[in-house]
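Incident review: delayed structure delivery

Summary: a single-chain prediction request sat in the queue longer than the usual turnaround. Root cause was a stuck worker, restarted by the on-call engineer. No data loss occurred. The affected request and its eventual output are reproduced below so the record is complete for anyone auditing the incident later.

Affected input:
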Amino acid sequence: MNRKLLLGALAPLLLFPALLSGQTNPGQLFGFRDSDTVAQFNLERRFDANLSAADQDRWMKRLSAFPHNVGSAYDLSNARYIDSLYKSWGFESQIETFEVLYPTPLARQLEMVSPKPYVAILKEIPVAEDPTSDQTDLQLPTFNIYSCDGDVTGDLVYVNYGMPDDYLQLDRMGISVRGKVVIARYGGGWRGIKPKVAAEKGAIGCIIYSDPRDDGYFQGDVYPKGPFKNESGVQRGSVEDMTLYPGDPQTPGYGSTPGAPRLPLDQVKVITKIPVLPISYHDALPLLQSLAGPMAPESWRGALPIPYHIGPGPARVHLLVKFDWSQKPVHDVIARMAGTQFPGQWIIRGNHQDAWVNGADDPLSGQVAMLDEAKSIGALAEAGWRPKRTLIFCSWDGEEPGLLGSTEWVETHEKELDAHGVLYINTDSNEKGLLGMGGSHTLEKFLNGVGMDVTDPERKVPVITRSRASEMVEASPERLRAIQSEAGIQIGALGSGSDFSSFLQHAGIASMDLGYGGEGSGGEYHSIFDSYADFTRFKDPGYVYGLTLSQTTGRCILRFAQADVLPFSFKEFARTVGQYVDEIKASLNEMRVRSADLDELISDSAYLLAADPAKPFARPKREEPVPYLDFAPLDNAVAGLKAAADTFASLHHQALTLQPVLLDSLNDLLYTSERLLLDPAGLPLRPWYRHMIYAPGFYTGYGVKTLPESREAIEQRQWELATAGILREAEALDRLRERIDRMNSLLRD
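Output delivered after worker restart:
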């Protein structure tokens, strides 16, 4: 981007930060009376003064000293240590334990049986520069949890990232994976989608490896010289089909408490249908090197020193995995500080503490930042301050295998959360770089305000200003114009992959997920090298961004705890949902154009004549015509929502003048408004997900699908289901609009 253009674009941000602050005027915080704003800023300065990089380092060193996966001795030790910290800071803290299905490997084997023998090592090699990498007697082996047991032998097929679009390419090339073992590289989408789609296509096994183009020497020096994945590094991870539901696979929709009914294993739908195993690029090289068949498309080729062929064969592999399907305990640490004025309104802050191995970056970088927040709030309380609303800090266990601890806690306390849950604030990994924000779009204005009041430690500008500048540099000309017309930045929508999922998509509690990153990239993820040594060298030396995260999420906690009017705003939500509707309409039109082009291609005899008879050829199938769907219910719902939201914004200042009883009523209506976007029946085929606006994609996993019922039905060409989804989504928006109308009436009166 032209430097002068960038400086011109940034000038309004640097000169007029109040435009982005979410404030009704430069001297007033959103949701606060003038008289309370000064006190709030003073409170936040005192909060910042209590934060300590030395404390974060001390906790990081203690918590990451040994592997602390679910069921391990050090996992319980860490939970007890965290519990003791909360209690020392004046919180009422307890450990809530759930028994969950947590299979661990009994046997793992991968060997190439032809054209030449090779036995995979299936382990990571410790390095002298990383002392904890040598704790081999305590480390979990390299595996994918919730893979089924399996013992299969078959020809190997390379499927790129193993996502649905990759199989469309294979179809065009006339290559089938039926009866074969597929090998996919990590990336392109969530790992659990890879065996899911492979099984649907008839594969009998799935191998997942990290290619050095995506995660290795193509990116830079490998560990321990640099941060990137070395040849023995392996990414562990869950392949539980969390697109159906997260949590304990045997207790969907209810907590895994003592005496709770448990599904028999043969009725659990979230376990894979074929065996899965992750491997290093050391083990992947001889397998891929032995493939023949057509060359992979250029975009499929990684950075290994080989030509990338697809197969099938002549590489033929034997894959064996067998598990101990037993239950293990997860230990959630729940710490409370009761509110003085509104104890029945809960501000919930969470970060998980379990890891696949030592887990310094994932998750302890976020955990130690959260502990620093709790310590600072404890110090404020000891000095005489108390929050107006109840604060709950949650150190979750069992996030890595499938959001186990948070999901079981939410399902167990669902009725209490429905009555009391105001906001859930989530973090996970954190490192140096830019602020990333996702969440309920009713929080967008609030989050921009917080981001304008936190300074980036490298650039000495508000963290929102830096994130906005980065977005502008990367934007297309069309997107750049849109960014320049917006106040602040648009936050992302939440799919899955961390502990916010149960709060937002099942319980209907407004949620946010925050973190810094982008400048601490490396290959330690879910490996033995996610360690204290790695983190303090490459991820966030000095905990500079750990402190910045504490400042950011601390302000979120304190402002929601102390606000006179809970700082929800509906204009941004209405605008964003309108954009989602436009996206779906555009995608439908694109499908219609592609369908017409395909019809023309199929009927063109020159297409067949040009095909090489010596190569396999799959003739494209003619698709049914793409209909014109009736979006009027959604269009009308969005229009009504926008009008109500605009009115609420114009009347919002009057909320601060309401009598206490009316103000309490308004706040009750505000914090329960997200619940109205739930449908008790849930989404088709996966009723655990009840939010009509945000859900993980059925074929994207972590990646979000917005307006998921209609959008995914259209993508799957299920037209009747799409029409039903449009109606249900419109009804959810109408429920919210009616709530806003009710609040508008209260403000007018």
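Verification: Confidence is low (pLDDT under 50) at residues 1-26.
Action items: add queue-age alerting; document worker restart procedure.
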